[in-house]
Structures are given as structure tokens and as C-alpha cells.
Amino acid sequence: MGVIDNLWRWLGVQTEVEEEIQEIPVLQERENRSSTNIVSIHSGKSVKVIVCEPERFDEVQALADHLKNRRQIILNFENTPADVSQKIIDFISGAVYSLDGQSQQLGHNIFLFAPASVEITTDHKTLMRKHDLQHNEPLGGKRL
Description:
Layout: H1 3-11, E1 49-52, H2 60-68, E2 72-76, H3 82-98, E3 102-105, E4 110-114, H4 124-135
Parallel strand pairs: 1-2
Antiparallel strand pairs: 2-4, 3-4
Helix pairs in contact: 2-3
């Protein structure tokens, strides 16, 4: 290229256009591709349930920490003295309340405490059976 070509290019007039054409490889689609779009959503965290048989009131802070970390707690008080059980239930119930959680008695000495991220539901049949056991008669007050 000479001086004249540079002048023409500077003025915007170019005699020859040089272009480089690059071929882009075409990606082949997989033949076995499924027609259904499936999206898997994983939270990355697994749900943990803590099962505990507390023996002393000293264990209550660790239990409350589990609730703060959004873990469910099942407490079995079968081998715990009654006065200690009541103190633990009172403390954990307060912690659950402050975290907008829920609690449910599962058995005579077994309780479930859950943080706000967990919903506890009870089916209608269980409520009826619980009512029957407490009052020793069916709902409505009539014996069959």
C-alpha cells in the first residue's frame, strides 16, 4: 500500500475492500435430546431434624440454637424428671414463639418444635382420636 491508498482511505474512498471471513463451526444438536424441559431446583441445604432425650436443663441452650439454625427438634422426655421436663418445655416454647415457630405434642412425653420455615399440620382423624381419648366419648357426647 502506498501513500495514495492511505490518502484515499483517509478521505473515505477505498478502492478495494479487504474482509476476512471466518467460518464459525456449527454445533450439532444431540439427537437423543429430550423434548421435555426439566429444571431441578435444589436449595443446597438438607433438612435436619434433631432427636434428643434431654437429661438436664443445661442442654436447653444447645436445643434453642438448633431452632435458631432452622432445624426441627423432637424431644423425648420419657427418661427425664418431670420438673426438668417442664422447665425445658417452657424455655423451648418461648424460643419457638420468639422465632414464629410452632410446637406439637406427638405423644405422652414426646414433643416436636419447629422454626417458622416448617409448617406442622395435623389431619382431621388424628384430632378426632385425640379428642376421643381425652374425653372417653365420641364427639357430640353420644356413646354408641
